[in-house]
Amino acid sequence: MPAYGIPIAIAYLIVVGATPVGELYVGFRVLNGLIAAVVLTVYLWRAPSSADEVDKMVVGAVVVFAWLSVVSAFPRQSLDAVLSMSAYAAGLFVARDVFRDARTRRLVKGTMRVLFLIVVALAVVQQLQPIMDWVQVVGWSPPPPTGMPFSGLQWGNRYDLVLLALLLFPAWLTGGFARARLVSIGGMGLVLGLVVLNAGSRNVWFAVVGATLVILAQRILGRRRWLRPSVWIGVGAVVVVVGVALVAVEPLRDRLLTPQTIGQRYAMWSAIVQAWIERPLVGYGPGSFPWVLQLTDYFNTNAIGPRHPDSAVFQLLAEGGIAGLAAAGALVVGVGRRLMRHGSAVEIWPLAFFALAGLNSNPTDFGFLAVTAIIWTALALPHGGPSASGETVRQPHLKVAFMAGSTIVLCAYVLTFAAGVKYEAGFVAGGRGDLARARTDLETAALLDPGMALYWRQAGTAALLQGDADTAVEHLRRALLLNGVDDLSWRTLALAHEAQGQTVAASEAAERAVAIQRSDPTNLLLVLSLSARAGQPSAPDEVAEITLSWPSLTAAAGWSELLPRGMTETDAVELALARWQAGGSAAGQLAGEPFLLVLLGHRPDLVDQALAVGGISASFGDPARAMAACDPHAATALEAMPDPARQDATFWSLAAKLDGVGRIDGAGARRVLEAMTGRQLTASLRGNLLNPLHENNSGGYSADAWGYRRLPIAWPEPSIMLPSRVAGEAALLYGWNDIVCGRFAAPDG
């Protein structure tokens, strides 16, 4: 491979190829496959004769996970995970091989330096956007709050963008340290520190401090020289930036000490442990986490469903059980010992940071972070370095075994890739409404890759929209045999049975969807809709639960049609308030929902109680009581609040609803609200309806994207469309006075 080929490939993978965009779009997957083919070819050619102890440990771990995929509860998803692990193992071997060359090492470090500048510049721009929106509307008094959300661009979550910047920065600490270079490095470190602090991720903060302590421990235990500039630059930057920020900036102290998100993680990890008890030795299979939570009762009361469980340890527990944890632990300990003995502080710090971040997150779930960690490992432990055992494998039968294994992997890759290309064609055709072409492509994908439940579900969806309900039911049942915890398959099956005229079967399928994923409003709304279409009135308890869980639905188009005959939106609000006061459950952890309900229900007497549930400052009591009573002086009460209250999103949510009342500028309030929440609610959303064939849970979980690693298809509208809570939020935001003080008339008229 040409000398510049490796840096170019690394830059491509970190910027695009190994990002969520590169994982999902077929064009990038083709290029990723070509890179993987080159890496695997080199690996298969050289590994049987030149692998050392580190390589054998990596292969051993991959073999364990390959065995776990054979006994997986979700074998098709596990196959994809093992193919990725094999590519990573081959990449580490090849990187360790080529990094023996000094020139290649310099080129790679130079590439990482340039990538750091790009990534940190983009992070700064993204962080400045909401700050500038605040300043243009509010000014500098009060100052903009810290931790406002910002886009992670193609890297996904903003925290993962910050993780990437921190993993790339140590490349600047290699080489000489002339005075001018020290100044520039210090400046870059300061900017990075501010970005990290403003992002507000406590996990990142702890990992930075922990990795620095690892380096200090290595220097003490290894009796290394203490005056290396790279060590003290890193330690000094961490101490100064973190210390000054936590002492001087109150919001950062509050973020550090708040219990926010701890309860969410506890609920998730508890559910994982309960699931693990069912399969303690082998878990549910590599890559199965997106479906493991569906097997538990987690989604009965928790709406947030992340791509990973915010912990590599708990994800390993769910996916690999004791065997997977043991294999990963042995690999980490074995490679970690060699790193601590032979790696430099600059090389060890990013790897220690990567590992520690995995305790309360999971960077291994993101290819661009895994690739960066592989690069640092290869730089620290190149082939032929002091960490090598001196013994290499030179046994001809191993080459035969490698070639046989590679043939199996190649066949699996070719078939699954060809199916993925056909699915991509179906994705395009389905999005433009060409159902015949979409169905043909998706059925072909399912035949090429019959273990992928998604392909059967989507082929069934295309058949349903074409009016072929019988074939749709057949395909959907095939999908559910492969993956019975995909609630969207059950939901689509309910629509197919309804199209057949089988109302009982439709209701049963919809109830199965609810049992799996209660916190997606689409499932509960579909149950209401099927009951209404069948002429069977819904139980008041069902209406109360839905209204309590998603109060904004009461202002959404189509909501009144789902209510039992004679029940109004106001009645639904009163039922929900009664359920809340009686301690009834909601399909999610209650936060601001009771607060919105008391405003919709005109219950000033319950404002203080609702504020406490939502964790909202009691100082909002006066304007909230005025809004609940439809008092025209509500805007005056809101404007009278002190400046600190304006750093709370609740202030701007209320201000946006009081557009045109008093001196409140609704447009400016909405702009600030968008900056503080990261959500855009435009007036055009007010009439939107919910397509039950789509993924509609906005809590972060995407079964197609993160469970099947494929793009969700934007299907045309079916015969049944549902009210949208987002549309209801937009309606309340742009028409509060007309809706709440008109349709929801105050008790005094």
Describe this structure in words.
By secondary structure, this protein is mainly α. The chain is 66% helix and 1% strand. Strands 1-2 form a two-stranded antiparallel ribbon. The longest helix has 37 residues, at 102-138. The N and C termini lie far apart (80 Å).
Major β-sheet profile: 2 strands, antiparallel
N-to-C CA distance: 80 Å
The portion of residues assigned to helices is: 55-70%
Secondary structure tally, helices: 33
β-strand percent reads under 5%
Whole-number mean pLDDT: 88
Rg value: 28 Å
Return residue spans where pLDDT drops below 50 for at least 5 consecutive residues.
252-257
Tally of DSSP β-strands: 2
User: Strand order within the widest sheet?
Assistant: 1-2
Judging from the principal axes of the Cα atoms, what is the shape? globular
Q: What does the oligomeric state look like here?
A: single chain
Structural class: mainly alpha
Give a quick precis of the structure.
The protein has 749 residues and is mainly α. The protein has helices spanning 5-17, 20-24, 26-50, 53-70, 75-98, 102-138, 158-168, 179-199, 202-222, 229-248, 250-257, 262-278, 289-292, 312-342, 345-357, 367-380, 396-431, 435-448, 453-465, 469-482, 487-500, 503-516, 521-533, 540-549, 569-581, 593-600, 607-614, 621-628, 634-639, 649-657, 666-677, 703-707, 725-743, and strands at residues 689-690, 722-723. The protein has a two-stranded antiparallel sheet.
